[in-house]
Write a structure and sequence with these properties.
The structure holds two protein chains of two kinds.
Chain A: H1 8-18, H2 27-33, H3 35-42, H4 51-60, H5 64-86, H6 95-98, E1 101-104, E2 107-110, E3 116-119, E4 124-127, E5 133-145, E6 153-157, E7 160-164, E8 168-177, E9 184-194, E10 197-201, E11 204-208, E12 213-216, H7 233-247, H8 251-255, H9 260-267, H10 275-278, H11 282-291, H12 298-307, E13 317-324, E14 330-339, E15 343-347, E16 350-354, E17 357-362
Helix pairs in contact in A: 9-12
Chain B: H1 11-19, H2 23-45, H3 48-65, H4 75-94, H5 113-125, H6 129-140, H7 145-152, H8 156-176, H9 181-184
Classes of the chains: A alpha+beta, B mainly alpha.
């Protein structure tokens, strides 16, 4: 009890006191009680949002100079478009080289420079008619293979730009709702298979090398837990091991992050319950003790864990943040994980430092 | 967008549709943010019923003013701003003194569970407004750091850091009052 802020009891007490009674969310009732508000909103149907176009129109018409500038801009844009249409290098090997516009998955799309984009179900990109190499990533998961030696290749997204030179990488533009927490999840994940990419937005920039991945969220700098210097190296290794094991559904590798010797002693009653080290509640421990009462060694306990169902097949896991407590002996990550093709969940695995090492204590 | 298919998972689409008068989309946003708004109002009003009333009013104001929302991906933060204004107006109008700070609350004892809860409540409402918002949002309905970061327009890292600091202050308050986890009766 030396550090009450780190103890579960405070969490439980705060949940108990502040969250004792959940509010009832009933939109139908709200509508009945607020007919005027409903009318105000529905009256907007069929109307365009007027402020912006009016503002724009006022700006454009404000002076002759602006009008002339606008006219010049239109002429230049038209000239560029005509020039591009007339360019003989449009190619004739497929619609990918001649048609600008939105492409939806599942498909593999070849760009004019030989680069390719594999779009998963639900993925979308928008390809410009000409100009710089690259495209706009609109939604979903894509695998990009960039042809080497032809200059900068830029993929734009709502969260930042990904710049590549001769490389293979995967991008996943996630826009969904977590099935467990019901929270909206919107982020971009970038993973490099070969070469390197630069991920940039106004908040920051990060160089990503082979087998590294990072995530970018709205108005935040790109985050790669493996490069987060505020987190101990060993914790980062543990997180990476957990992610790799879960993505591969490798229960034994996943279990290797846990302190099995300690768990065995706990099961056998040779260690007292400690929420920081165990991760679960006292009831969880009781269930563990009942379920594995007959094991005779840590190795057998591990085997039984794996045999008892292993781990659910998991898709990609993206680590959004890692937080260390003040004492520096407890770490918690917030992750977004796919279960199956499209089901998203938010998880908060935890690690604790004891027995001279960092151990995962909660998944 | 209006009248077309709206992806209920895409908040920006919902906001855009609501701006165009699509009531169902506004309803989906209501479902998503009603509870956080009650929590946010509760952090200011310290009264559950008043907080529910405030949240209802927040969505009425949002209906009226949604056309003024500049950035579709900041809907939650915009809503939170309305919520703070509505709650302040209610505080001024009713001259409400947050219940957790009212004088008729018993001073915390040493080992009674009710006293301990009262002490924790007092500790929470002794925090600065920004910290209190964080704590209440976190523990009101189990909102994740990501949800909180959207409502409060903070990064998840900032939410984490500030939560740790706020909890440390609560713990310090409790310690000053001679309370620890043992008094709460939890393991």
């Amino acid at each position: 009890m030396a550090r009450p802020e780190n103890d579960k009891w405070l969490d439980e007490a705060l949940s108990d006191i502040i969250g004792a009674e959940k509010p009832r969310t009933d939109f139908e009732q709200w509508k009945q009680q607020h007919p005027q508000a409903v009318h105000t909103l529905t009256a907007r149907a069929g109307k365009k949002d007027s402020p912006d176009p009016l503002k724009t129109r006022r700006l454009i018409m404000v002076s002759t100079i602006v009008k002339l500038a606008a006219a010049a801009l239109i002429v230049i844009a038209a000239a560029v478009a005509i020039q591009q249409w007339a360019t003989p290098d449009r190619g004739d090997t497929g619609i990918e080289q001649t048609t600008a516009g939105r492409i939806s998955g599942p498909t593999t799309f070849m760009l004019a420079d030989g680069s390719s984009v594999k779009l998963a179900e639900g993925a979308q990109i928008r390809v410009g008619s000409a100009g710089k190499r690259g495209f706009e990533h609109v939604a979903g998961r894509i695998d990009v293979s960039v042809t080497k030696g032809q200059g900068e290749f830029v993929v734009t997204t709502p969260y930042g730009n990904v710049t590549a030179l001769g490389t293979q990488f995967t991008m996943d533009l996630v826009d969904g709702v977590a099935a467990n927490t019901k929270e909206p999840v919107r982020l971009l994940a970038v993973e490099v298979a070969e070469g390197s990419v630069q991920v940039s937005n106004p908040k920051g920039s990060s160089l990503l090398k082979e087998r590294q991945k990072l995530i970018v969220e709205a108005n935040q700098r790109p985050y790669d837990f493996s490069q987060d210097a505020s987190v101990p190296e060993k914790v980062r290794q543990r997180i990476a091991a957990m992610v790799t094991a879960l993505e591969a559904s490798d229960a034994a590798a996943w279990l290797a992050n846990y302190n099995i010797a300690y768990l065995y002693k706990l099961v056998k009653g040779q260690e007292a319950y400690d929420p920081q080290r165990f991760g679960g509640s006292a009831d969880d421990l009781e269930r563990l003790r009942k379920g594995f009462a007959d094991v005779t060694s840590p190795a057998q306990l591990a085997e039984r864990f794996v045999a008892s169902g292993g781990i659910q097949s998991s898709g990609k896991i993206y680590v959004r943040s890692v937080t260390l407590n003040e004492a520096g002996d407890h770490a918690e990550a917030e992750c977004v994980a796919y279960q199956g093709e499209s089901r998203l969940v938010v998880t908060n695995p935890k690690w604790h430092h004891f027995d001279n090492d960092w151990w995962q204590v909660d998944d | 967008m209006n009248g077309g298919c709206v992806d209920l998972n895409s908040e920006t689409q919902l906001v855009e549709a609501a701006r165009n008068g699509h009531l169902e989309s506004f309803g989906a946003l209501y479902q998503r943010y009603h509870s956080p708004m009650v929590a946010l109002a509760y952090s200011m009003l310290a009264d559950r019923d008043l907080a529910e009333d405030a949240a209802q009013e927040v969505f009425a104001v949002a209906c009226r003013d949604i056309g003024s929302l500049k950035s579709k991906d900041r809907f939650a933060a915009w809503l939170a701003g309305i919520c703070r204004n509505v709650s302040r107006q209610m505080l001024r109008a009713a001259k409400v003194k947050p219940a957790a700070l009212s004088d008729d609350c018993a001073a915390p004892g040493t080992d009674d569970s009710a006293d301990c809860k009262e002490a924790i409540r007092r500790a929470v409402w002794s925090l600065a407004e920004a910290e209190r918002e964080l704590i209440v949002l976190r523990y009101f309905d189990g909102f994740s750091q990501s949800q909180i970061s959207q409502v409060l327009a903070l990064s998840p890292q900032a939410v984490n850091g500030r939560l740790v600091r706020a909890k440390r202050k609560i713990a310090a308050y409790l310690k000053r009052n001679g309370l620890t986890g043992d008094d709460h009766g939890t393991s």
